[in-house]
Amino acid sequence: MIKIPASLLRQIYQHTEQSYPYECCGLLIGSTDQNQNHIVHAFRQCRNLNTERARDRYFMDPVDYLRVTREFENGPWDIIGVYHSHPDHPSRASQTDTDRAIEIMATAWSYVIVSVQNGTVAGAQSWVLNESERKFYEEPLVTVPEEGESK
Amino acid sequence: MSIITVKIPTPLRPLTAGQSEVKIEGATVGEVLQKMDSQFKGFGDRVLDDGKTVKRFINVFVNEDNIRDKKELDTELKNGDTISILPSIAGGKLATKRHKNFFVIFVPFCG
């Protein structure tokens, strides 16, 4: 399960709508509880460097990723997942999403995908990679009322 | 010999017993990564191709510089440098290599 404060999820939605019709991406920052649930406390937008096919691909700027790791390296939070948008497409994890996640064995992360239809968010789902089966499984995405940090 | 801090990303921490950073000696990036492989079983397989180049979906930074913009694994290190290993995060809504095959069977109509 991943828990995201409603205010942060709204801001992530704004990022995906502002980026439409292109895919956007960012990092989810937070903690992991004793039941392995992810709790999001902040997020950071990152640039999509795939400018040639930004309508159906994203490639997160590694310099942005480095910047975020530096920002949070002294804790208490850590990078717990990734979000990206699917313009005019469902929020299911695609084969491309799966292949790229398998390459980096991102089994500890939540992958939140936001579907944006005609410029408006249609919904979001969160996915977790099962390494042995080499596929994503949906996990519950729960919005919680607490206010969180954003940027 | 220089003491280097190696920052480990979340996806690779199962290989380092959960450690987010490791201190290790080395004069070049290649030497440090080889020592990491010796110390942590499977580390090299996840980061290097045949021990000679960094996998295409891994980025290695020395401080703020990507080693692909420097001398790759031969990039020299000085005492106190930080190596950050970052997986490439990518994806997208459509599949790349897999295509659906469509077979059309034409049956002539004989009336």
Write structural notes for this entry.
The complex is a heterodimer of chains A (151) and B (111). With 151 residues, chain A is α/β, with parallel strands linked by helices. Chain A is 23% helix and 40% strand. In chain A, strands 8-7-6-5-2-3-1-9 form an 8-stranded mixed beta sheet, sandwiched between helices. Chain A is globular. Chain B is an alpha+beta fold and 111 residues long. Chain B has helices at 29-39, 43-47, and strands spanning 3-7, 21-25, 48-49, 53-54, 58-62, 65-66, 82-87, 90-91. A 5-stranded mixed beta sheet of chain B has the order 2-1-7-5-6, with helices on one face. Chain B has a two-stranded antiparallel sheet with strand order 3-4. In chain B, a hairpin with a 2-residue loop joins strand 5 and strand 6 (65-66). Chain B is globular and about 50 Å long. Classes of the chains: A alpha/beta (151), B alpha+beta (111). The interface between A and B is medium-sized, with 39 and 28 residues. Strand 4 of chain A pairs antiparallel with strand 8 (90-91) of chain B, so a sheet runs across the interface.
Characterize this entry briefly:
The complex is a heterodimer of chains A (151) and B (111). Chain A has 3 helices and 9 strands; from the N terminus they run βαβββαβαββββ.
Helices and strands in order:
The complex is a heterodimer of chains A (151) and B (111).
Chain A: E1 2-5, H1 6-19, E2 25-32, E3 38-46, E4 58-59, H2 62-72, E5 78-87, H3 95-104, E6 110-117, E7 120-130, E8 135-139, E9 141-144
Parallel strand pairs in A: 1-3, 1-9, 5-6
Antiparallel strand pairs in A: 2-3, 2-5, 6-7, 7-8
Chain B: E1 3-7, E2 21-25, H1 29-39, H2 43-47, E3 48-49, E4 53-54, E5 58-62, E6 65-66, E7 82-87, E8 90-91
Parallel strand pairs in B: 1-7
Antiparallel strand pairs in B: 1-2, 3-4, 5-6, 5-7
